[in-house]
Amino acid sequence: MLTKVQQRKAGLVAGRRSDPLAGALPGQRWVVRYWLPDGSATDVIGWVETLDPTSVRLSSIDQASHVILRSTIIAARHAPAAAGGPDPRRISAAVLQRHALLGWLGWHEPLGEWTLRAAGGFTRRANSCHAVGDPGMPIRQAAEQIISFAVAHDIAPMAQVIEDSTEQRALRGLGWVTTDQPTAVLVSRLADALADWPLKPAVEISERLGPDWMEAYQQSRPNSADAAIVRMILEGSHPRAFASVVGHGPDDHSELVAIARGHRTKDWLGLAAIWTRPDHRRRGLATAIMAALGHWAARQGARYVYTQVGIANESALAAYTRLGLVHHHRYVYLAPAQ
User: Cis bond leading into 211, ω under 30°?
Assistant: First the structure.
């Protein structure tokens, strides 16, 4: 029960007070200031889970649930879908690369600050040395370690390096050469992205890698890799999630027509495996599943989003640019000269 003073402060007398939560919808992020029983006030920021004429239930990043009587609310405002932060382009390429590293790993072991990686040859990202930082030994010895690890795992020796980095120059000084065109890393504040990416209820999010998602992934990039290795990489380290949209196939049975994978490392969300079946493209499904993964990550405290695209994939680069992602840096793969 509010005191008369509290009622006056909250503007509750004579029905003059407008509803601070007017227009609030489940899933939105709100900041709510309300009275406590001892007469003090506090703020809660969280996502609306349920809303009725007498109360609202918010869930916060720490997964706590807050049930607030609407009669005690002093003020409320609709907040951005994710927490803010500095321009992600101010964050160094090395720092971002260390976040991205954890999202795509098979077998791996450290080499100083570098990481030796192998995954049966499935994707260069999982079968190269992540050469960022100090290997803890002379560069020639580090290069020999990359080669020895590759031989032991029956893969080609390769190093992933940030373009124009000290590591790239050091390996090139040993005669290592670029194997392909660079890969671009694109970024955005998550709050900025989610303000423009529509969230559609048709998107399903699961933290379990199901057989239907795996089947769709195999359609998106046909390969002969061991399915167990592909699953090991996709399941990877937690937290990660798999987004999908169910449609109808040519035989009128339900199947996945769009997928994407999200991996969160601290306050970064990495988006990968974004694919829409050709006969369902240009319907906004890719944007919708990216948005769904963005909201999933935002609820865990993510503030930024990145994706990695080969510069030869001009259509994908253009699409991500239209969605508000901007260039951060590029990386390349090096291999010993033949």
Answer: no
Instruction: Give the structural domain span for 20.
Output: 4-78
Q: Identify the pLDDT of residue 17.
A: 58
Angle subtended at Cα 155 by Cα 166 and Cα 209, rounded to the nearest 5 degrees = 95
- 3-state DSSP assignment of residue 131: coil
**163 with 214, same domain?**
no
Residue 236, token pair as written in the block: 């990877």
Query: Tokens 């390429």 label which residue?
Result: 93
**Same domain assignment for residues 213 and 319:** yes
Q: Which long-range contacts (CB under 8 A, 24 or more apart) does 205-209 make?
A: 205/241, 205/242, 205/243, 205/292, 205/293, 205/296, 206/241, 206/242, 206/244, 207/238, 207/239, 207/240, 207/241, 207/242, 208/242, 209/234, 209/235, 209/242
Confidence of residue 254 (pLDDT cuts 50, 70, 90): confident
Q: Are residues 195 and 315 in the same domain?
A: yes
